[in-house]
Amino acid sequence: MPSDFVNTLILWYNSNCRSLPWRESRDPYRIWISEIMLQQTRVSAVCGYYERFLAALPDMESLAACPEDQLLKLWEGLGYYSRARNLQKAARIVVENYGGKMPCDASELIKLPGIGEYTAGAIASIAFGKPEPAIDGNVIRVTSRLRAYTGETRSMKFKKELASWLRAENSREDASWGTLNQAFMDLGSMVCLANKSPLCEECPIRSYCEAFKKGIQNSVPVRAEKKGRRVEDRTVVLYTDGERFAIRRRPDKGLLSGLYEFPNYKGKLEPGEMLLAAREDGMYAVRLRKLPDSKHIFSHIEWHMTGYEILISRNDSEEGRFIFAGKDRINKEYPIPSAFAAYANAIGIKVGKNERWSYENPDSGDSVL
After folding, report:
1. Looking at 35, 76, 132, 261, which residue is catalytic?
2. I want to staple 338 with a disulfide (CB 3.0 to 4.6 A). Which of 29, 209, 251, 352 is the partner?
């Protein structure tokens, strides 16, 4: 029989669960898409992407056949683009080896690209009713407080021990596992909060919580010290002929691989240095204008960006180095990562949510030429 806290938590979830679009279906494809999108991404950011993605790619076959640029355009702004590429790799395997039907067992799911133990457990339990725990940060935080656990929580050894503990606490071999996993997610998001004091007075299972009883809920789980990020200065430039803007494709490997970007240079270039770099790239500048600085944080790198707009009269750049396209075409065809959101938004390309400033005609405003 399940422990009392499991029954109590499931009852709370049935009355208080969040209304989310992927919970309206038990379609394994839709649940898989949502779980991949939710990796390291806030729920509020995912909802719109989820609906748009499924409208364009409603099934396994359409995802498997989708051109890469279109796939990345649908993912534009979500970040961690390897997730999208792994989705397609997995879709092609499912179409080829499983007849387009998602395997139901966690042991098979975990063999697919982009699916780890958590995602395999989530899909198996929620979509197929399999008795599998899905151990993410919410589960670790809630159960660590329940048990007043003060040890290391990032190791695979701990996660295996936690999975065994959860199986002992919820011994039923039925669909309650999917509900329990989602209940942990919602309790962790709504009540047993991270990076702030948990709302213990609102918690349905506080009477079972050893950390609450001991008054140590704010210090459990023990947080590992974060590593510092490397800061890189970059200079981003909007080359324009008045109607079109220069973009280029990033290399197939490395950071933001295969996406499109505005030309950019290492370091924080002063106006004179920027004009020299433009000339070396075959751009004949008519006017240069300073744009607001911007910053983007990756998991391990921080970009501090200086921005310029340069109106050009002629482009003698190496053939194929740049693509000149109007903003409508860029909006439709070319995936721009959110690292360049401030500069994309400046010309009416909607990437991310940074709309603090907007594009003006390059023939107006201050110029240093």
Report:
1. 35
2. 352
CATH code at 4-214: 1.10.340.30
Catalytic (active site) residue 35: yes
Q: What is the largest CA-CA distance in the chain?
A: 78
Going by C-beta distance under 8 Å and a sequence separation of 6 or more, which residues neighbour residue 58? none
Average pLDDT, integer, range 58-73: 97
Is pLDDT of 54 > 80? yes
| CATH number, domain 230-346, options 3.40.50.300, 3.40.309.10, 3.40.190.10, 3.90.79.10 | 3.90.79.10
- Name the segment(s) of the chain with CATH classification 3.90.79.10: 230-346
For CATH 1.10.340.30, list the domain ranges present in the chain.
4-214
Judged on CB neighbours under 10 Å (0-12, 13-18, 19+), 41 is: middle
H helical segments located in the chain: 4-16, 28-37, 43-56, 60-65, 68-75, 82-97, 106-109, 117-128, 137-147, 156-169, 176-190, 210-214, 271-280, 327-333, 341-346
pTM for this entry: 0.84
Give dist(CA 178, CA 122) in Å, integer: 7
Q: Average pLDDT of 301-323?
A: 94
- The rounded distance, in Å, linking the Cα atoms of 364 and 69 is 34
* Cα–Cα distance for residue pair 58/60, rounded to 1 Å: 7
Q: Strand, helix or coil at 295?
A: strand
| Residue 245: strand pairing partners | 240, 325
Alpha-carbon gap, residue 137 to 151, rounded angstroms: 15
- Got the DSSP string for 86-119? HHHHHHHHHHHHSTT----SHHHHTTSTT--HHH
Separation CA 23–CA 20 (nearest Å) = 6
Q: Each residue of 162-184: b (16+ CB within 10 Å) or e?
A: bbeebeebbeeeeebbbbbbbbb
